[in-house]
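queue> pop job 88
queue> type: inverse folding (structure -> sequence)
queue> payload:
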């Protein structure tokens, strides 16, 4: 018996400050709050677009994202074109977000696909990319994909 076709559902992220994370994700990704509980011991939010759940935020952690432990490596979002990536980059710069590379970069040497790589307020590594148009900049990492965050 074969496995039915799979599609990624939503991604759940642990955050330290629910209100701060909601504001960041709404501004950067243009998502809306589909549901939330912001009082009491169990704080969470469901974020999405057009009624489709994309990301859930759970305020149940402390510290910053541990990049040296097994688990989530990074979360990536595809947009239709490089102009949308550049708009995201501008928003990130306005917010003072930490960019991993200097602006929009290709996924690797000779690649046309690429994007902007950054972290959220808790240090979670994120990417917004387009399938083409990023080949105007050099690849920042030699011999490995840019999305490896090496």
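queue> result:
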């Amino acid at each position: 018996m074969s496995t039915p076709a799979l599609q990624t559902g939503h991604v759940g992220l642990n955050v330290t400050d629910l209100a701060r994370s909601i504001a960041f994700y709404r501004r950067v990704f243009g998502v809306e709050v589909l549901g939330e509980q912001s009082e009491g011991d169990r704080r969470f939010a469901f974020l999405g677009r057009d009624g489709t759940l994309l990301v859930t935020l759970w305020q149940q952690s402390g510290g910053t994202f541990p990049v040296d432990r097994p688990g989530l490596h990074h979360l990536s979002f595809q947009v239709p074109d490089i102009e949308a990536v550049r708009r995201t980059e501008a928003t990130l710069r306005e917010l003072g977000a930490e960019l991993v590379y200097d602006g929009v970069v290709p996924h690797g040497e000779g690649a046309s696909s690429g994007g902007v790589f950054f972290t959220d307020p808790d240090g979670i590594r994120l990417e917004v990319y387009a399938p083409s148009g990023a080949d105007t900049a050099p690849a920042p990492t030699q011999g490995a994909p840019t999305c490896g965050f090496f």
